[in-house]
Write a structure and sequence with these properties.
flat, three-stranded mixed beta sheet, four-stranded mixed beta sheet, 228 residues, binds zinc ion, Zincin-like, 2 domains, alpha/beta, 6 helices
């Protein structure tokens, strides 16, 4: 039997949730433990799938932290050291990195490689995010006054009262639809400088399923810690 955290409350049904790789079961106050166990067992395939996916994401993040791969547009590109390239180059299946940036031996620190990868990603972000912001602004017919790239610790984006939009360069690592959500969120702030119901109504007009997109973005928060 799989282990789980049990939360009992005045609810009517049993439900299982998985957050950050941990399984929690919510149950009514009086449901017998055996019945709860049986319910959890019936969900085993779904639970196993969810937990495996979490492990996969965690693995990708570890590879990125260890400079064995980069995340770009929500995909993982393994790093391939090469004598044939003079500068970092994106290929369909990998990121070609000049051999001179390869760390020598197991224990050498890969600070130089990490810096180079961070710089490359940031440059890619500068071009790509500004292009995307332009596209989305035109598509939504919401203009903005200016664009800046940020290195913010936790925020993905912001919009000041002059209509200047700031985007975290690490957005380049997430799926494009998540980037679009952040851009649309900030564009809507040029209309409403708050999180009022009018603001969210504007967001919903442009992204009807914004709530699920937003919760997925929250699960990508570990990305904001990369290349620090
Ligand atoms: Zn906001």
């Amino acid at each position: 039997m799989r282990g789980y955290e049990l939360q009992r409350s005045k609810r009517k049904t049993v439900s299982v949730i998985i957050r950050d790789g941990a399984l929690t079961v919510r149950a009514p106050l009086k449901t017998p433990r055996a019945a709860i166990d049986k319910f959890v067992e019936s969900k085993e395939a779904w639970i196993a799938d969810k937990l495996a996916r979490h492990a996969e994401t965690a693995l990708a993040l570890k590879d990125v932290a260890d400079c064995k791969a980069v995340l770009l547009y929500g995909g993982t590109y393994p790093i391939a050291f090469s004598d044939a390239v003079k500068k970092i180059e994106l290929r369909p299946e990998s990121l070609a990195v000049p051999f001179k940036l390869a760390a020598n031996g197991k224990n050498s620190d890969n600070a130089a490689l990490k810096r180079a990868l961070g710089r490359w990603l940031k440059n890619t972000a500068a071009a790509e995010l500004s292009r995307r912001l332009d596209d989305v602004s035109v598509r939504c017919a919401i203009p903005y006054a200016g664009f800046k790239l940020t290195n913010a610790k936790t925020k993905w984006g912001s919009c000041d009262n002059k209509g200047v939009i700031r985007l975290n360069w690490r957005l380049i690592m997430t799926e494009p639809f998540l980037t679009d959500y952040v851009i649309i969120h900030e564009l809507c702030h040029t209309l409403y400088h708050n999180h009022s119901s009018k603001f969210w109504a504007e967001v919903a007009k442009l992204i009807p399923n914004y709530k699920s997109v937003r919760s997925l973005l929250k699960r990508r928060s570990a990305i904001t810690m990369l290349y620090r």
